[in-house]
Amino acid sequence: MEENQSKVVVKWSGREIEIEYGPNETVSDLRNSIYQQTKVKPERQKLLNLKFKGKTPEDSCSLSSLKLKSGFKIMMMGSLEEEIEKVNVEPQDMPEVVNDLDIEEEEIAIENQEVYLAKIEKRIKDYEIKILNELRPEKKLLVLDIDYTLFDHRSSAETGNELMRPYLHEFLTSAYTDYDIVIWSATGMKWIEEKMKLLGVSSHSAYKVAFYLDSLAMISVHIPKYGVLDVKPLGVIWGKFPQFSPKNTIMFDDIRRNFIMNPKNGLRIRPFRQAHLNRATDQELLKLSKYLKDLAQNCDDFSAVNHRHWERYNPKRRR
């Protein structure tokens, strides 16, 4: 690196790209350098954590004024032109995408096996939870996945809003009336935090997320038919917060195997994919808002409800 040159690392699409810049270069110059190495046009680049006085800097802003440490990592979202063209064309004769194992509860009665209960106890003891917003008395608990549940993380887009599941903020606002909300993703904590910022969840004024859980809170289980799987045991939360239990907890995830340790408290949400094609018609969160409201007002034990048939749930019939 030449004298007076500085360096940043751009994280994009699973890659880390080193960019050198001089003392007089601007954000616009940085975007052009990124374009040279990635072919993502400057106008399509969203530099997530590049800030000047708490706001996204203008392209004319000098990089030196940002006071970036050498090797500072910038997370970028942005799509190549050919990828954008692809997502606007609906594929023909494609088989239905299955992002789950067809696991039946009777095949894997593992939730009470001592080896896995011991793993949960270890997570309860060792995994640290950072409380973002205080838990509220008498509230139920809603645990949400991110990828394909709230956000299409595979499609290409210029902004995060294009990939956000429709009615997300309305859904969370409605749920927050009756539930404390927890986000649990099988990714790292840093990425969870960035996604929540990108979607505007972490700063929304109408609802609050209690805390995040990442992949380190998960445990691995062995299923003879499928091998070793990483899953999300709700017992980790119940062990740390005894006000929550199978009676008042529900988890939404697009992958059923994630809640095989708690099969009676999981609801497999329809995955949200191909956002550009489906965001105009997807109403899953709108319908689930009503389901959550019905459960909160009419059900004393969430584990007694078959959540596979949530669309047929009739609270009047249960009275």
Measured as a percent range, the helix fraction is 10-25%
Order of strands, widest sheet: 7-6-5-10-11
Shape: elongated
Cα-atom Rg, whole angstroms?
22 Å
- Low-confidence residue ranges: 86-99, 104-108
Q: What portion of residues belong to β-strands?
A: 15-25%
Name the helix and strand elements from N-terminus to C-terminus, one letter apiece: EEHEEHHEHEHEEEHEEHH
Discrete helix count: 8
Mean pLDDT: 86
Give the class from helix and strand content and strand pairing.
alpha/beta
The description of the largest β-sheet is: 5 strands, parallel
Give the helices and strands, then pairings:
Blueprint (H helix, E strand, L loop, with lengths): L5 E7 L2 E7 L5 H12 L7 E2 L24 E6 L3 H7 L26 H13 L13 E5 L23 H9 L2 E6 L4 H11 L9 E5 L5 E5 L3 E5 L3 H6 L8 E5 L12 E3 L6 H4 L5 H15 L21
Parallel strand pairs: 1-4, 5-6, 5-10, 6-7, 10-11
Antiparallel strand pairs: 1-2, 3-4, 8-9
Helix pairs in contact: 4-8
